[in-house]
């Protein structure tokens, strides 16, 4: 149940920890931007899922 609920967030954390990135971290500013984007997308997905569950609706 835990993995089913938090799978996108777990993948975002794994993406940050892996040395392979879309944009290498050695490039100033832009290197960390793809990592930050993954975390933000994961948090937004979790928020939307929680909101959908709270409202009891099937769509956003």
TrEMBL record:
This is DUF1232 domain-containing protein. The chain crosses the membrane at residues 6-23. The keyword DNA-binding does not apply. Keywords: Membrane, Transmembrane, Transmembrane helix. InterPro entries: DUF1232 (IPR010652). It is found in: Endomembrane system. One of its GO terms (cellular component) is endomembrane system. Pfam families: DUF1232. Residues 6-40 form the DUF1232 domain. Coiled coil: none annotated. It is a multi-pass membrane protein. It comes from the Bacteria. The keyword Transmembrane helix applies.
């Amino acid at each position: 149940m835990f993995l089913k609920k938090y799978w996108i967030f777990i993948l975002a954390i794994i993406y940050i920890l892996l040395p392979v990135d879309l944009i290498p971290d050695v490039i100033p500013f832009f290197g960390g931007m793809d990592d930050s984007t993954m975390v933000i997308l994961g948090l937004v997905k979790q928020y939307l899922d929680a909101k959908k569950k709270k409202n009891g609706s099937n769509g956003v």
